[in-house]
Amino acid sequence: xxxxxxxxxxxxxxxxxxxxxxxxxxxxxxxxxxxxxxxxxxxxxxxxxxxxxxxxxxxxxxxxxxxxxxxxxxxxxxxxxxxxxxxxxxxxxxxxxxxxxxxxxxxxxxxxxxxxxxxxxxxxxxxxxxxxxxxxxxxxxxxxxxxxxxxxxxxxxxxxxxxxxxxxxxxxxxxxxxxxxxxxxxxxxxxxxxxxxxxxxxxxxxxxxxxxxxxxxxxxxxxxxxxxxxxxxxxxxxxxxxxxxxxxxxxxxxxxxxxxxxxxxxxxxxxxxxxxxxxxxxxxxxxxxxxxxxxxxxxxxxxxxxxxxxxxxxxxxxxxxxxxxxxxxxxxxxxxxxxxxxxxxxxxxxxxxxxxxxxxxxxxxxxxxxxxxxxxxxxxxxxxxxxxxxxxxxxxxxxxxxxxxxxxxxxxxxxxxxxxxxxxxxxxxxxxxxxxxxxxxxxxxxxxxxxxxxxxxxxxxxxxxxxxxxxxxxxxxxxxxxxxxxxxxxxxxxxxxxxxxxxxxxxxxxxxxxxxxxxxxxxxxxxxxxxxxxxxxxxxxxxxxxxxxxxxxxxxxxxxxxxxxxxxxxxxxxxxxxxxxxxxxxxxxxxxxxxxxxxxxxxxxxxxxxxxxxxxxxxxxxxxxxxxxxxxxxxxxxxxxxxxxxxxxxxxxxxxxxxxxxxxxxxxxxxxxxxxxxxxxxxxxxxxxxxxxxxxxxxxxxxxxxxxxxxxxxxxxxxxxxxxxxxxxxxxxxxxxxxxxxxxxxxxxxxxxxxxxxxxxxxxxxxxxxxxxxxxxxxxxxxxxxxxxxxxxxxxxxxxxxxxxxxxxxxxxxxxxxxxxxxxxxxxxxxxxxxxxxxxxxxxxxxxxxxxxxxxxxxxxxxxxxxxxxx
Length: 871
Description:
The chain is α+β, with helices and mostly antiparallel strands. 18% of the residues lie in helices and 32% in strands. Strands 3-2-4-10-7-8 form a six-stranded antiparallel β-sheet, with helices on one face.
């Protein structure tokens, strides 16, 4: 292993001019301790120069930061362990974004890509004591864009402005922050696009050293690439064929390196193979080999099997012995994309196959967990991936407007059994792909990221971009080759995947279809279903006339969507009041108050009012705004997922927009910035179970469907009840359910008189699936009748409690809250009928919490409840 020395102790200052050099810096400048890894904002917060950008209205006072030049410096002594190396590299793993570096007063180099490391050979430039200086220029200064791109942006702004409810006070179209409100210049900077704001986040462009900087000492050789993956699996005989390859660069006196690859099973069994290395035309030594694994343990998503991980050691030496090695982990699995014909619907499938078996992808879209990308702790990544698994999700889509995530994210997905749809970082706007500097930068970035991530068994698909094909087609009427990113998505990126990750699936964009006329339509490829929430047809079809804006954006429109794979869809919801209060200290939270409105970045801010007016009635207080928006999100996601899953296998996946948040705001997330799950999270947890029972009103009456997304047949009884909220049954039957693997069909149907005072309920006596229900009117028209909850609370550990809820009357969305963001509930936001009991395990409580502070409530006017027992 090469010796490494981390560079620490950075200081930070800023100047108005970015043309200065280190020797021109005035020593009277005020230097602050810098947060590394982190960024300028984090450093200024830590030093008390600014308040946290997310607190109150601080986001409105920090715009000056992106217009300054920011200087980092550190002094270091060369560690003895690095002395005598054949080469020493200075590696800056993440510089955000336009950086010039000086070592000991002499220019070291320039770098302007936050998505790949900056690396410099410094072996001859390192005395005992050294100084490193980095200057970050304002990220968008000096950028010139092609005129045709500027014209396209103007056309898109006009089109998007037409989708809002009118201009703002200045007469300009109301646009959310982001690419279209910022300008096309950001396309020439390889930086997270959402830095400039989005419809779910504010404009807080990160700047600085967002990943570590280190010195790496190479002796004899360095492994510049390593890959191991299953090329074939024989499940019957439990045998896997694993291909291995590595690239080696020699330094110093090494003339003929040797290579060995050692595969170690989870149980400790070792298989070793020698790999012959030969020198390529560029001077790199390359070698390939094959390992046959007997008694192979396959990697599956968590719902289908286990997640065994094999260790792989790549060892390079020469006649002197071992020179260097890289240790990694892999899972034995294959992933393919089934694009076969769906004869039942004259369409093409879009279905993942894992180890040869068809799977239904159930998941969500991942956005960066903070605008301040460098300071997210590893625990946040693990908590979010863990919450996704607990919600029965099996796939996360890393959205192309954010960043390639840190290793801890992919490690967590490997360990917890979630597949990753990985996008390259391009989103929503044409990119000038003919620009030679940008083109060369994208080539280097793609090679780096594909090689970095290719060994992860969770990696299921590489995708070229988010929504660029659809946007370009909308404005230009075609997706023909041109200077808008076409060569990136159809040449550069697929070539990088083909060369570096040959077993991987590549898909040019999301949404995309191989027949251009079908982009975001329903017969080919994946689609983004934004008929719901945005209230316009984006090629799903269905009704075109609506009685109100709220009806136009209502979730019942999902019922008309016959898409193959839905990679985006969702609805807005506020976070818990406790989250809003934490980030708006001392401010009044009430309807139309700035503290509430500035947390909404979608345009216009009151878009959600139309949906709530139609479904729940307009909220009168901030408390009702939080509750009603959460209810609409939960009910909408429930309806959409159930519809899409009933269509299995014609539909083979749903990825909700979005899993998490980049700041504490009102957005489409189902988990807020403080990692508090919303009602929509628990609705998904129930809708994403492997075996789902759901109701549908069809042409011939009320239908019960059961959807089996497992690889084995299932069977058991289902009790179907149609009852009145006031009591009494219209129907009460037990139905025998028997389904094959990956089958979805109707198991019961009845023509009944259905009205607002009636609900349908299905339950499984042997727990084949969780209970589910269907209402037959909008919530504001339903009288649930008198309701009451009683709760028995018992402490079960220092940070744990058990709560047993008992319902009296029909309690819709019964829930517990603690006000503590670390609290977790085994289930929450439940429907409980008269006499139902539900045990909820609560974890993550503060050790000194008073259990009597746990609140119990259900939807609508707060029910009476009693807490039985003492803390």
